[in-house]
Each structure stands twice: as structure tokens, then as C-alpha cells.
Amino acid sequence: HAHAGHYLEQNADSAQPSSGQLGGDPGTGNEHLSVTSGLRLIVGKMQATPENLQGLAGYLNQTLSTDFNVRKPAEKYLEQLEGTENYALLLLQLADMESADMTIRLAAAINFKNFVKRNWRVVPDEANRVSNTDRAAIKKNIVGLMLKTPDVVQRQLSDAITIIGREDFPNNWQGLLQEMVEHFRGGDFHKINGVLRTAHSLTRRYRHEFKSQELWVEIKFVLDSFATPFSELFQSTMQLASQHAQNPPALKVLFSSLLLICKTFMSLTSQELPDHFAEKNLEPWMAHFHTLLTTDNKLLETDSDEEPGPLELVKAQICEIVAMFAQKYDEDFESYVQNFVQSIWTLLVTTDTKPKHDLLVSGALEFLASVCERQCYKELFSNESTLTSICEKVIVPNMYFREADEELFEDNPEEYVRRDLEGSDVGTRRYSACNLVRGLCRFFEGQVIGIFSGYIAVMLQQYERDPGKNWKAKDAALYLIAAIAMRSKTTKHGITKTSELVNVPDILRSQCIAELQKPDIMSQPILRADAIRFITTFRSTLPKDLLVSCLPLVAVHLKSPSHVVHTYAAHCIEKMLVLRDAEKAPVVALSQLQPLFRTIAESLLGIFKLQGSDLNEYAMKCLLRCMSAMQDHLAPFAESLLVNLQGNWPKLARTQANPTLITTSLRPCPASSETPARRTNNGPKNSRAPSFPSWRVYS
Q1: What separation, in Å, do the N-terminal and C-terminal C-alpha atoms of the chain show?
Q2: Cα 50 to Cα 56: distance, rounded to the nearest angstrom
Q3: In 169-243, where does DSSP find H-type helix?
Q4: Where is the sequence biased in composition, kind Polar residues (predicted)?
Q5: 507, 481 Cβ separation under 8 angstroms
Q6: What is the CA radius of gyration of the chain?
Q7: Which of 42, 348, 376, 636 sits in a 20 to 30 Å window from 109, CA-based?
Q8: What residues have CB less than 8 Å from 355, skipping those under 6 apart?
Q9: Band of residue 491 on the pLDDT scale cut at 50, 70, 90
């Protein structure tokens, strides 16, 4: 029998996957099966025969079927084979077979990756799921096989190498890097990119792992084998990119390599700056980074307004690298910082507002924010004209609400809310611009606030002149105010300390409350959302009476048809009810909530009837918080509330809903049939407990 690590060439035609369904029962588990009913095993070992390859291809083909009754038995049968010796090697062999259909090759690679993910780790006191013979054969062959397969297959096998590497590298796979770097000198960028992609995956964890001697020993091992050929590859790739500057296909391949090189460089330098990249060794890297940042080649741009091109991706990664160097390696980076500040400044003022540039612009803004908040670099920004230019030409333009943001607000409001309330707006232009404002305020607070005060006044005047046309000016002004006012912030309490130079309560009264008091709650939904967001953000710093006076206004907006507005309103009320004063008493007293409770509860239940908000977790959290705050006074409403909530449970069970929402929805359900009315002396004597359906699984 041929060994599974060898590739069958002479019988390629007979190894083609069958086009029809395989006969027989895929899950029989018989030791000897015909090729039409299973794969031939001899003493628990799968042989690398053309018949077995054909049978395996047939089962993989069945796993791609849309028919559950075809797909599920095939998946189950292949899962049973995972304990069979040589099974993984046959998957690799099939992934490499040029005569096989590409869908089968890709399916084989994906199944191999999942096999490794499930079985490679050795668990103490458990049987070894992969034989030592198979482990050795896989590690011996997988790198070479990965580098010769098509890109879609290569990516899956690269991921598999990364998974194996997490367990075995470097101690039990010391030859991995050496085998990989041998392909740097061949000039085949399909192979080079395969190596780089794998190196990036292997080293990416260095960015976030805690420092330890074991980790540093591993990094040193990697650097000793990898750093020199890696640096040489960067140099040669830059030369090739210059030579092929007018060759679009070649450029795209080369810039995909440069992107992977930049990502791997960042991983290798995230813990500490090693000698391989320090002092004189750092000079060529920084010189090439600066060259790439200042490169402008239209051939690398995409036609799409949404999708960034390879050059934008490389520039964005370089911005991330130099931002890290500005924060962590002052002495080494000091001689380069001024050139990068100037180049990134130029990049920011010349880049348009298309979404495809968002990653680059936000990275560039974060770099400036990293530099300006460091004591050793503050002189770069001390000139009044420099500060004015940054505020006018960089920050203000990136504060404005764009057409793409408006489309997100209207067409995908759940994502709009998620980005803001759940913190996934990290990396957006506006978020990074706010970070730059806060960075500048660290050393130049008075000057920055003075400059922005003029712009804010003009923006608000523009809005007053024509609210229907100039609403974006007020939107930008509110975000600017929040950025310059904030001094400290926590997730639980929002902004906890504000600048003494910004009168937040006055701004709230004149700009936010005034907006919320306008009678038509359907008008200007974005500005209404901004006003509610402003209250939520500054809730911990506002005078108690002012904050409580906002509660009825916010409650009215629970009836807004805008998903963002009523979600922000629910979130705001929930956060207001959590607040405690210095004596640990609720800021919103029971006597202040009680008159509004019926209106708030009915509005929140109404939200669940709106299309797109029927599973609104913020409304559910708000309702639960209100019920909790009402304490014994909840009794008159308890049955009605629980009956209404009960109606949502089957829908929750049938959908892939947010687990937080499911948990929150079940909290109001009492542990027994007693209602709050029965458990207290305040409820009506004849209060009847609502009947609850017995627990069952909805399908």
C-alpha cells in the first residue's frame, strides 16, 4: 500500500470524486466497506488507495449538499473516521490533488483544519487522538504542500499550521521556521505569501500575551531564525515594488506581501524592541515605512467607495506600527517622529471622506494622538498655528456626519447602536478624532478649547439659520463639545470628570433639552439621538435636579419610530436609574419614577411590537431596571407586565437571539407562582397570580 504522505499521480483519473451520491449507509461503521458504501480500512488504518481517495471525495461532496438528509450522515461518518490512522493524511493528499474539483480540494482542506482544531491538542489522562506516526508525517509534509496549493486551499492549510504551532511550536516543531524561510529566496510570491501568512498567524498572539520568560524565549527563538531573512525579504520586495510600479497585477501581489510583512513586524516588536530591529537595524525599516506612507499609485486603488485597496491597507498598518513606537519606544523612535508627523499630517489633509479610507484615516489620527500626548513630543504641537491647522484641517472635517453614516443610521440601525453603545466604534474617524482632541488637551487644554469654541459657535449658528439643511453642523458641534469636555470616563458611569473650561450643564439646557422639547418626536431623529446620548454620557457629572428633569423628556422618546432614538432613550433611562448619590441613594427617587412608570412601561412594551425592535435588549434591560426600582409598588402592574413579556419567550427560543437578551427576558419570571402582590402587604387582597406555561423547548 502506498503511504498517505506520497501523492498519487499515476492513478489521478481513477481518484476523481464520484458525481452521484454514494450508496449504502455512511454511518454503518463496518470494518470492510465497498467503495460505494464506505472507505476501506485495514486493522483500523486507512490506506492511501485510489479507491479510498475516490470514496473520501464522495463523502466530502455530500457534506456540501443542501439536503440535510444527505449532508448530516456524511458529516457524521467523516467525524467517526477522525480516530482512524492516515485519515488526516488522506485529506491532505486530496487537498493537493490537482485532478480533483476545487470544491472537493477546499472541502478536504477545511475538514483537515477542523480535524486539527478538534484533535491535535494532547489532553492529560486522555487517549492521544492523533497517532504519533500521523503527527510526524503531517508536520513533515504540510508546509511544502501548503505552499504549492491554490490560494483558497493554502489559506486553510496555513490556519491548520497555526493551530498545530500553538501546541507544538517551537519545542516540538523546531524545524518549522527554517523550512519556511527557505522559500524566501526562491522568488515565488505565491509561496512567499503562504509563508508570510503563516508567520503572521503564528506570531500575532505576541501582541496581547502577558510578558513572561517563556514567551520571550520563544520570541528570541523566532527572531534568531527569522529576523535576518525577513529583513532581507522586505528590502527585496520594496525594490521589486519600485521596479514594477506600472504593473498592476505584480503590484497587487507585492503589496499583499508588504502588508503581511508589516503585520508580522508589528507582532515581533510588540513585547519589546529586539536588537534585530533596534538602532541601525531599525533605520531601513523606518525608511521603507516612510516611503510607503508617501507613495501614491492610482493603480493600487479600488473602484469601490467602500473597499480599501492594498496601498491603503499597508499605510494603515504602518500608522499602527509608528503609533506603537511613539508610545513604547521613545528613544529609538525620536529621530524619526518629526518626518512621520509631517507625512501623516499631509496624508490626512489630502485624503477624501470615502469609507474605503476610514481605516487609514483613523490610524493616522491615532498616531497623532499617540504622539501629542507624550511629554517628549509636545513641542511639535506647541505652536499656535500648528494647533489651529490640526483643529481646522484634520479634526473638524472628521467630526462631521457623512452620507455613509446617515445610511447606517437609517438602513442598519442595530449596527449603528452597536458601534456606539457597545464600543465597536473603535477605529472610526470620529472616535479617533475625539482621541486626538483629548490628546491635544493634555498639554494645550486652554488653547485647544479656545480654538474649538469658535468653530462650535459657528456650527451652532449655521444650524439656527437653517435647521433643516444644517443639522450636521449641530451634530458635529455636540461631538466636539463632548470631546473637549471629557477628562475621565468609565464604562459603568460614563464621563466622571469634565474640563473646568466647559460648562456642560449650560450646554445641556440650551442645546439638548431644547432639542428634545420640540413637539414632533419624528423630526430630526439624529439630533434627538445626539441629545439623549449627551445626557447619558455626562449623567454622572450633571446636577441631580437637572438630570431628573430630563427623565420625562427622554421617556417621551421611547415612542419614537426611529430604532436608534428609542433604543438610546431606553439605554439612557436604564443608566439614570443605576446612578447613586454620595449617600448611596438612587439619584432618581421612587417618588420621581412612580408617576412615569406606566407610561415608560407601556412605551417599552410598544417597542417590542415594532419591526426590527421586537428583540431590543436595551428596551428589555430598561424595563427590568424600572421594575426593580419600583419595588413593592410594582404589584398593580405585575400581572400585565409578565403576560406581555411571556409573549416574547417563544420568539426568543426560535431565533438566534442575543444571549444577553434571553437572560434579561427571563429575569422577571418569578421562581414560584407567587406574584409580588402576594408577597407584600401593599397589593390588592384578591390579586391573582398569573399562570405560566410549563417549560418546554420551542422548535
Answers
A1: 49
A2: 10
A3: 176-181, 189-203, 213-243
A4: 11-20, 663-689
A5: yes
A6: 31
A7: 42
A8: 305, 306, 402, 404
A9: confident
Burial class (CB in 10 A: 0-12, 13-18, 19+), 687: middle
Q: 590 pLDDT exceeds 80?
A: yes
Q: In the numeric block, which cell numbers belong to residue 84?
A: 482512524
pTM of the model: 0.84
Task: Tell me the C-alpha to C-alpha distance, in Å, between residue 16 and each of 46, 64, 70.
Answer: 18, 16, 20
Average pLDDT over residues 488-495: 86
- Write the DSSP symbol of residue 586: B
pLDDT digits (tens, 9 = 90+) for 606-640: 999 898 888 899 999 999 999 999 988 998 998 88
**Counting beta carbons within 10 angstroms of the beta carbon of residue 578, is it exposed (0 to 12), middle (13 to 18) or buried (19 or more)?**
middle
Cβ proximity of 219 and 271 under 8 Å = yes
Q: How far is CA 570 from CA 73, 107, 180, 346, 554, in A?
A: 47, 46, 55, 42, 8
Q: What is the DSSP letter of 658?
A: -
Residue 632: CB atoms within 10 A of its CB come to 13
Query: Which three cell numbers mark 636?
Result: 398593580
- DSSP 3-state percent helix, strand, coil across the chain (nearest 5): 70, 0, 30
User: Bigger pLDDT: 14 or 305?
Assistant: 305
- Cα–Cα distance measured from residue 99 to residue 11, given in angstroms and rounded to the nearest whole number: 10
Domain spans in the chain, listed from the N-terminal domain onward = 1-168, 589-699
Q: How many CA atoms lie within 13 A of 157 on its CB side?
A: 32
From 222, 224, 242, select the one nearest 234 (Cα to Cα): 242
Neighbours of 299 (CB within 10 A): 14
- Whole-number mean pLDDT of the chain? 88
Q: What is the DSSP string of 403-432?
A: HHHHHHHHH-HHHHHHHHHTSTTTTSHHHH
The reply to whether omega before 170 is within 30° of 0 (cis) is yes
Judge whether residue 367 has pLDDT over 90.
Answer: yes
Neighbours of 166 (CB within 10 A): 13
Beta-carbon contacts of 617 under 8 Å, excluding residues fewer than 6 positions away, are 658, 660, 661, 664
Contacts of 655 (CB under 8 A, 6+ apart): 615
CA atoms within 13 Å, Cβ hemisphere of 229: 19
Q: Tell me: the pLDDT tens digits for 137-154?
A: 999 999 999 999 999 999
Q: Which of 382, 278, 296 is nearest to 336 (CA)?
A: 278
| Cα–Cα distance measured from residue 312 to residue 296, given in angstroms and rounded to the nearest whole number | 10
The three cell numbers locating residue 625: 431596571
